[in-house]
């Protein structure tokens, strides 16, 4: 019976972990370029059960409750919307990222909402410098309208100032909509939707439904623990008689 309580407690623990992932997805449903996190669970096998103290026929397996086995990110392209801002970009290949300088190192993002800083650098809305295809910050002049071409050339008037550093590879989330990659490969001809932004690929309605289901699972596990605890107490009362 204690094993049942332990399995229910394990279910509550993993459900809480799942709720954290779902809640974070919901919180970023309106974050440009955000990718949905997913988590998979499996029952952890404890032991096989046999009749007659282990010498009889196989009766089944006793699980230890669910445990997180895989955490991954859904990299599918989010909805692309037109903004009319010539500095907004949306990478059309969901496997590609824009290189930026963040926290003193090269990181990557799919948030293409860019602007020109007071120092005339091309930066993200959070102020991170955008890097060119040589890994250098992109500094603009004072004359001419700045815009970006569908293949990543940063233009000021009719002059090309730089080319965006766009990379593909195996990316890992670092938080705050930033990613890292050990050995990314530069993309020479990225496909960019100009004056557009890629929204979050979180399905807010489906995620909310998942959150309700998970909350119910949590409550059921909690109720199961109370029920098994009551049964244990009643068993001890009977044994005392």
Spatial shape: elongated
Question: Can you summarize the main beta sheet?
Answer: 5 strands, antiparallel
Please tell me the overall pLDDT: 89
- Helix- and strand-based class? alpha+beta
Number of strand elements: 18
SSE pattern: HEEEEEEEEEEEEEEEEEEH
Spans of 5+ residues with little confidence (pLDDT < 50)? Answer: none
Query: What is the helix fraction of residues, given as a range?
Result: 25-40%
β-strand amount: 35-45%
| Alpha-carbon distance between the two ends | 20 Å
Number of helices: 2
C-alpha-based Rg, rounded: 26 Å
In short:
With 241 residues, the protein is of the alpha+beta class.
Task: Give structural notes.
- The chain has helices at 2-27, 204-240, and strands spanning 36-50, 58-74, 80-82, 89-91, 96-102, 105-109, 114-116, 122-124, 129-130, 146-148, 153-156, 159-163, 166-168, 172-175, 178-180, 185-186, 192-194, 196-198.
- The chain has 241 residues and is α+β, with helices and mostly antiparallel strands.
- The strands form seven sheets. Strands 5, 6, 9, 13 and 16 form a five-stranded antiparallel beta sheet that branches.
- Strand 14 and strand 15 (178-180) form a beta hairpin.
- Helix 1 (2-27) runs antiparallel to helix 2.
- The longest helix has 37 residues, at 204-240.
- The mean pLDDT is 89.
